[in-house]
Amino acid sequence: MPRGATVTAVGQVEALRLPHALVERLLDDPAFVRNLLKVLSAKLSQATQHRAVRYARERLLFGEFGAHVSTEAAQRLTATGLDYGLPRQVDAVILFSDIRNFTDTSAGLDPQGLAAQLTVYFDRVVEVIHGHGGVVDKFIGDAVMAFWGGFDPMTSEQAARQAFACACAMTEAAAAATLGGDPIRIGVGLNAGHVFMGNVGGEGKRQFTILGTAVNLAARFESTSKQLDASVVLGSELVDDLAEADRQTLTRHEEVPIKGAAPQTLFTWRPSTKEKR
Could you give the CA distance from residue 251 to residue 276 in angstroms, rounded to a whole number? Predict the structure, then answer.
């Protein structure tokens, strides 16, 4: 990765021009030369140590986040010098997507064929997520979990709009891929809320992730997408942050039963719907 450096003076800088004869006389003085070399050596050593620390930080960040974010986002994280693996609470938008009828379809495929077709699908949806500024948290079987917030300084409105646009684009990207000879259809759940973010685990296994009720509900919303005959299911808190033009493409559903939670007011989106809520 290309690297550069910018040198900025702190305070006033003065340049001292020494006569050539004086410089020659000083360089003939062993004590002066020895002291000069000591100073230069110390400065070079300090610079080398700072560079080593910076490169170590870059390796750590790319190791932890290289599979989660786009190259551009990883470079921005490196430039901040912050440890984004530290546990903290953040506001985020969470996305879960799942392939429809995956179990039945995959049962008829050989392992090599299944792996090859899933690779094409995952590559396409990850590209869409990164292209919309999202972070890929993990794959769970054929499911994809992603989120917005906690890294880039985006507002809740920006995160909601990017995530919704991403979910719509993912349905198109999925349909352009095939599984068992048929276009892939997915269901997507979107939710917004306060979550835990950071590295979890120990010496044997450590993973960066987000956790919380908002995450669990996003997964539940995705599960209801088939029941509601929709491609994307959104929680009401996220919908409040969408632009009016986006809200006009949604259908409202009152008191939808949600496993493990109180009934929710949900909103759905379908690729060809013209309905207004």
Answer: 6
Q: In CATH terms, is domain 84-269 a member of 3.30.70.1230?
A: yes
Residue 161 contacts residue 148 (beta carbons within 8 Å) = no
User: In what helix (H) or strand (E) does residue 266 lie, and over which residues does it extend?
Assistant: strand 261-269
How far, in Å, CA of 127 to CA of 159, rounded?
17
The domain limits of the chain are: 20-65, 84-269
Task: Report whether pLDDT(275) > 70.
Answer: no
CB 159 within 8 A of CB 195: no
Pairwise CA distance, residues 60 & 76, whole Å? 14
Taking Cα atoms as reference points, which of 225, 91, 208 lies closest to residue 160? 91
189: enclosing H helix or E strand: strand 186-201
Q: Closest by alpha carbon to 213, among 193, 233, 232?
A: 193
Of 62-76, 77-91, 184-198, 213-227, the poorest mean pLDDT is in: 62-76
Distance CA 272, CA 149 (A): 29
> How many Cα neighbours within 13 Å face the side chain of 43?
6
Distance between CA atoms of residues 192 and 185, nearest Å = 24
Pairing label, strands 186-201, 232-235: parallel
